[in-house]
Structure formats: C-alpha cells, structure tokens
C-alpha cells in the first residue's frame, strides 16, 4: 500500500465494511455509533486516516481520528497518543483499524492503550481475516485470534473483516474454472489451500 490509488481503494473498502456493519439489524451494534477511528502505529495510522476521510466524504459519517506513536514525546501534544479529543465526561467509543491479524497482539495492545485514555473499544475492523487458529482450547477446539479478541470485547460480531481467506480462495477458484489464472495465481491458490488445510479454523 505504497501509492495513492491502492490506499484509496483500501480505505473505501474499510469504510464500506464499517457502514455495512453499522446497518446490520442487531439489538447491540458497536459500529452504528462510534466516535473515534484509532490507527495503531505504524501501519494503522495511514489506514485509519484515509478511512476517516472516506467516511466523511463518501458516506457522510464524521468521526474523529487518533493514533499512537512508539516513542512518547514531551513537546507538542506530548505523550504517545495523537489526536485524542478532550472535554467530555463520558467514554469515547472507539473502533480500531488493523490490517491482517495474526496473533491479535497489536489490537490487544491498542485496546489497553485506549482504556488508559479513558475510551472504550467497541469494535475492530481488519482488512483480511486469515481464518486460522492460534491455539487449541481445553476442549480440543481450534480458537482463532479473532475469536479471542471478540471474547475480550464482549461477544461475536465485534471484529469485522473486509475480506476473509475463503473470499480470496473462491475468487481464484472462479478464475481458475474460467481458465483465466496466471501461473503465479495458480501457485498462490495452491499455497492458500495448503495453508488453510494446515492452519484453517475449518476445513471448508
């Protein structure tokens, strides 16, 4: 994501995913009313900033944007959080932007940081869900980082993804069936199938 066209496309996808999640017909929807889009350093900063712009310009949703930095500063805004608003008694409702979740450590660290700021993380949106397990629980069931994070946040549906591994596999399989895959895409598809068979949360 090193050029404007790709970054704009990705930001549009994040924004569309957030707005689709907000329209879900559920009694408690964390994405329907949040205040701040938070981008963990460093990849999350540009993703959150661009998504905030797209939410405002294309969807009419005006939310605030904040991020952290690895090293705290003693001048300017100070500290290691930039853009955090002030002047409100109740907790700010925050959605975290992630790219690809592996262990979930970055998102978990961001949740703790937001809590120290007096905010509440109500959801996470990520670009790709690998649909892989990170551990086996006491019952012998596969548990993914997404499942663990949703438990931490209070329930299913708190983590949304632009794409899932199954979406990429299906897209490549459809191209393969039409005879439109390149040799590189064929190798990628085979690698994804093998990866899913070994680490996937399900075999489907």
Q: How many H/I helices?
A: 6
The dominant shape is: globular
Instruction: Give the proportion of residues in helices.
Output: 40-55%
Q: Which spans of ≥5 residues are poorly predicted at pLDDT below 50?
A: none
Q: What's the main sheet like?
A: 6 strands, mixed
Q: Which strand order does the major sheet show?
A: 3-2-1-4-5-8
The average pLDDT value, as a whole number, equals 89
Tell how many strands the DSSP assignment holds: 8
What's the Cα radius of gyration? 18 Å
In what range is the share of β-strand residues? 15-25%
Class per helix and strand makeup: alpha/beta
From the N-terminal CA to the C-terminal CA, the straight-line distance is 30 Å
SSE order in H/E notation? HEHEEEHEEEHEHH
Structural notes for this entry:
This protein has 204 residues and is α/β, with parallel strands linked by helices. The chain is 43% helix and 24% strand. The protein is built from 6 helices and 8 strands, in the order αβαβββαβββαβαα. The chain has helices spanning 4-22, 43-59, 105-116, 145-153, 165-177, 183-199, and strands at residues 36-39, 64-73, 79-82, 93-100, 120-129, 133-136, 142-144, 159-164. A 6-stranded mixed beta sheet has the order 3-2-1-4-5-8, sandwiched between helices. A two-stranded antiparallel sheet has the order 6-7. α1 (4-22) crosses α2 (43-59). The longest helix has 19 residues, at 4-22. The protein is globular, with a radius of gyration of 18 Å.
